[in-house]
Write a structure and sequence with these properties.
The complex is a heterodimer of chains A (115) and B (115).
Chain A lengths: L2 E3 L4 E5 L4 E3 L2 E3 L5 E8 L6 E7 L7 E2 L2 E6 L4 E6 L8 E9 L7 E2 L3 E6 L1
Parallel strand pairs in A: 2-12
Antiparallel strand pairs in A: 1-4, 3-9, 5-6, 5-10, 7-8, 8-9, 10-11, 10-12
Chain B lengths: L4 E3 L2 E4 L5 E6 L6 E7 L5 E8 L2 E5 L7 E4 L6 E5 L8 E8 L9 E2 L3 E5 L1
Classes of the chains: A mainly beta (115), B mainly beta (115).
């Protein structure tokens, strides 16, 4: 079974600075998908960014980018120019390639942004 | 952006009582999911639903749980006889496609407290 580990329960960053959230996973599959979800105080889970394992190029969405290291099974999220609205819980998630399989989540990292 | 709607936002019940958690997925979506998050723990998959039947379910989803799509818009999770350990945040999600990297849209959750 796949597992996802987020080793940082809490992180903080100064406004306008850059922060990196760590995620590692364990799988025997060669193809899969990885996601970062954000959960603000409203509690809604919002997709931040996704990465297909067969793509070598790291995904980027505006201020959010990932560092995908397939051999190391590492999938970190970098947030540049941090904003107060970035404060939230961030969950790393894994999904197998066959469609409609469940997302496997990590325990999350709580990010605080300091003004 | 379209939203998944969950009601109620909070539900308090006595142990042994039945509860029904309600969700309105995005209107043109075909795949539906329930996840739950016990306080301080990771988000866990419960069940996926497609074409009016369960596609996959986890070990958590035992005989006490059931799902239903009673009409064209609602998707419900029923817990027949609640236990203290059922206290958690329950998230409904939906997606439009089968592909693994398809974005899941999550609702804001129902916080279930079993006393």
């Amino acid at each position: 079974a796949q597992t996802v580990t987020q080793s940082q329960p809490e992180m903080s960053v100064q406004e306008a600075e850059t922060v990196t959230l760590s995620c590692t996973y364990d799988t025997s599959e060669s193809d899969y998908y990885l996601f970062w979800y954000k959960q603000p105080p409203s509690r809604q889970m919002i997709l931040v960014i996704r990465q297909e394992a067969y793509k070598q190029q790291n995904a980027t969405e505006n201020r959010f980018s990932v560092n995908f290291q397939k051999a190391a099974k590492s999938f970190s999220l970098k947030i540049s120019d941090s904003q107060l609205g970035d404060a939230a819980m961030y969950f790393c998630a894994y999904r197998s390639v066959p469609g409609n399989t469940p997302l496997v989540f990590g325990k999350g990292t709580r990010l605080s942004v300091i003004a | 952006e379209p939203e998944v709607t969950q009601t109620p936002s909070h539900q308090v019940t006595q142990m042994g009582q039945e509860v029904i958690l309600r969700c309105v997925p995005i209107s043109n979506h075909l795949y539906f999911y329930w996840y739950r998050q016990i306080l301080g723990q990771k988000v866990e998959f419960l069940v996926s639903f497609y074409n009016n039947e369960i596609s996959e379910k986890s070990e958590i989803f035992d005989d006490q749980f059931s799902v239903e799509r009673p009409d064209g818009s609602n998707f419900t999770l029923k817990i027949r006889s609640t236990k203290l350990e059922d206290s958690a945040m329950y998230f409904c999600a939906s997606s439009g496609l089968w592909t693994g990297n398809e974005k899941l849209f999550f609702g804001s959750g129902t916080q279930l407290s079993v006393l």
